[in-house]
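Re: the request from the purification team.
They wanted to know what the chain is likely to look like in 3D before they choose a buffer screen. I agreed to run a prediction and write the result into the notebook, where they can find it.
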Amino acid sequence: MRMPSFPMNSIRTRLIFWIVGVMAFVLAVMGVILRYTLEAHLLASFDNDLARMGRMMAIQTERHWAGPRIQWPRLDPAKLKKMMAEEAKMQKSDPFIRYRPRILSPKGRSLFPLSKDTSWNPQLLALSVAGQEAHQTVYAGREPIRIFSIPVFHKGKVVAVIQTAYSLSDMYRNLSGLLYTFLVLIPVALLVTGTSAAFLSRRLLAPVRHITQTAAHIGSADLSRRLSVRGKDEFAEMASTFNAMLDRLEQAFEQQRRFTADASHELKTPLTAIKAHTSLTLSGEKTPAEYRRALERADKAATLMIRIVQDLLLLARSDANQLHPDLQPVSIREALAVSADTYQGSGHPAIDLRLPEPDMKAVGDVALLTRLFNNLLDNAVRYTPPDGRITVSACGNGSYLTVTVSDTGIGVSPEHLPHLCERFYRVDEARTRKQGGTGLGLAICRSIVESHHGSLILDSAPGQGMTARVTLPQAG
């Protein structure tokens, strides 16, 4: 039979040690408390018995003291010696006689003529002579004795002291036996606790082992596997959280793969064009006009490639949280006017600027906001016919302002709207490379807006154009 392994650095081993350690501490504390609590209760019981006996004897003594004095008979010295020897013998054999009550004078001498008993303790006698009742534990050799001392009054004066005694040897012997039994049972209890903890920890940590085994088989090449969620406990919540993380990782890996493929394809197109034109030009003698046309085409392809690389670098900085805008008040009127002037002219749809008075200012980076508005207008101009119209407006709302760019272009279907800000995403029949787009414009817009703690919302329908609403923090 294979014994279960318990690595010292495992949670299961530490859990077992903690449970056993806590149980040992609890048992030790309980043992100490039980021992001293039981001792206190037993002493209280003995004190009550001794006090009851002492008070009864004190009452009887007070009555005798108030009546005629007792005249002890005169005894023959030989007979008295014999009686004292017998009494000493009986005291050795009978503890009850040895610790019988003592009636003492205020000076500590026995009031019995045949007894040589003295006070068990001078301090205890002094307390009683002073008129106090007192309990005290004294030792006769190695034997503990519990003493109760009570004064006897006559006419307001202490005339005698009664001391009752009880040996505590049996009590301490029984307490020692109880403590020994408790100490013997502690290892048994700890063994049972450790075994139970090992069994329960194995059952409780089974979902963790399942999660570990499943996670070990999940790699970057296959992120489709998921953990089984059972019940509604903390492990089920952890499995659900792990599955949600896998969903995000799978989506991120898929976007990364698509991004890499699309970026390679986009960069390959201008490089292929440059290579084709240069190779064709170098294949034979050409006229100066043909050389010029070849250089113009290569320059156009290189410009496109530079634009793609710059866009990719900006997105990479945004992904690395290194897109730190230089925040300052920016005039929305001036920024939109500069962007609109770029697209004014023949062949472009009319741009209608509807900006309120007075001028509003946003908290942002001038260069990044200019690029944001350029991309939005470029996207609107590209997909709006020349006879269409583009409307740009702005309005303030408390601590934020909203810039709206609407066009009367071809629009897109609602199912494409959530993906328009994804990198290299294009809608069939609408977003094509023939129209000059790289598929990064709206992705850059979203990154710029997020770096300014704003939001970008797109709304469109086929044949009804598109509306882009940008919300930015307002200065002042």
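For the purification team: Confidence is low (pLDDT under 50) at residues 429-434.
Please add any questions underneath this entry.
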